[in-house]
Amino acid sequence: MSPATPLERLRARITRLGAPLCLGIDPHPDLLPEGLPRSIDGVETFARGVLEAVGDQAVAVKVNIAFFEAFGSEGLAALERLRGDVADDLFFILDAKRGDIGSTAERYAEAIFGHFAADAATVSPYLGEDAIEPFLAFADRVVYVLARTSNPSAGRLQELMIDGRPLAEHVARWVAERWTDGRAGLVAGATVPDELHRLRDAVPAPGFLVLGVGAQGGDLEAAVASCHGTLAPGLVSVSRAIAGASRDSDWRQAAAASAWQLRDRMRQAGATLGH
Amino acid sequence: MSPATPLERLRARITRLGAPLCLGIDPHPDLLPEGLPRSIDGVETFARGVLEAVGDQAVAVKVNIAFFEAFGSEGLAALERLRGDVADDLFFILDAKRGDIGSTAERYAEAIFGHFAADAATVSPYLGEDAIEPFLAFADRVVYVLARTSNPSAGRLQELMIDGRPLAEHVARWVAERWTDGRAGLVAGATVPDELHRLRDAVPAPGFLVLGVGAQGGDLEAAVASCHGTLAPGLVSVSRAIAGASRDSDWRQAAAASAWQLRDRMRQAGATLGH
Fold this sequence. Notes:
By secondary structure, chain A is of the alpha/beta class. The first copy, chain A, contains 12 helices and 10 strands. In chain A, α2 packs across α12. The longest helix of chain A is centred in the last third of the chain and has 22 residues. Chains A and B meet through α3, α4, α5, α7 and β6 of A and α3, α4, α5, α7 and β6 of B.
């Protein structure tokens, strides 16, 4: 019998697989394996191949909608087909980082949770509650609010100091205090481990969706530690280090092997923490 | 002979029409006129009808992609058809408020400026330069960075004080100092006129895309004043007060009449300023 809510299913799968590995699918046409066309057909073939090769090792899959949207209606049609191929017990995150006023956020939530039936979405905090509440209005679904991102210029706004604390921490505290049922998590980058630790210390409860491990150089052990002992389950998303493990004809096997290694490292890191 | 760049075309059209009226198209299925189906067909029919009825009065049209994305691939197919119906000399803004790390922002820019051939896009500042530069990499295109939005919870982050200035002003100053060729403008809400004046005083150069006039209660005269005397042309966007002027069978005529009145008020406000 399948547990009732997406978070319950996610928690059960993390227990079963022993590691919070989230498979990130960000198929840039210029980075596809040799032999695949740099078109939406190539993107779809690649995304499906990675999903099929790695899905069993992961507890969640995070698809970045930008790589489909770039092809317009044909891109979203490919995403609709891909969505149909994601197993029911794989927590499906649509990474869209939307953020708009209430009436518009409602339509974005309809796209992500209605049309694409995602279990979770990433959202931007810049417009405040209005941009987030319409997503949480969908029963049982999860949002990850951007707090500290993994990109080079993340600090431009996120490190601005307000009353002695960076804006990212202010966002984290606000989210943690306002929504306490576990359905509002935070996006946190692993590229600056000190910031990740600081954010974790500031808000013990919310589940983190940790980005930047792998090609961006984020700290895997720090990432796993930040997923430990929280109210809602945390996730460590890895994209290019898995999906881009090889650009030769062995790309599916290379992705599976890389995921196996990463999952093993995550298990060991978790064991050290007393998992 | 058509002037070369989107901003030059926009400036010429503002001079010709005498008012910076931007037609906002945000077609919520629940707010469609009587008789139209609450489906993507209804949304497309309504959007096209408003565009045809009002396009001649406006210098720009701003379409919010959320209302199409909510219908997935069929929604974007409708947006592709609608885009094809926008006249060449009407400045086309795709309101998407995207904000992601560099490699992803590049794909969002491809979607908006490549696939949909927009003249301008709205973008979120939360991830810093990485989220904005890929849009400006498209020659001659314009971005409007969210500074102070018009929604009730806008102040949650945007009014946080940093060194004596609200975050929104910090964003405005950063954008104004970093990109000085007129292609980086700012989104500013007219619902709090004092904030709008303050923002305008802080950064004299960037063109504003002013939102919130009409149904949201924003101050039209303050909005027009904030578009006066800047490096790049400013725009005042009005959505529901035009598109939702009537939900009866006369909705096209009502939209055109409302646009005519608003354009006239904008002209008068501009004349007071010495336009």
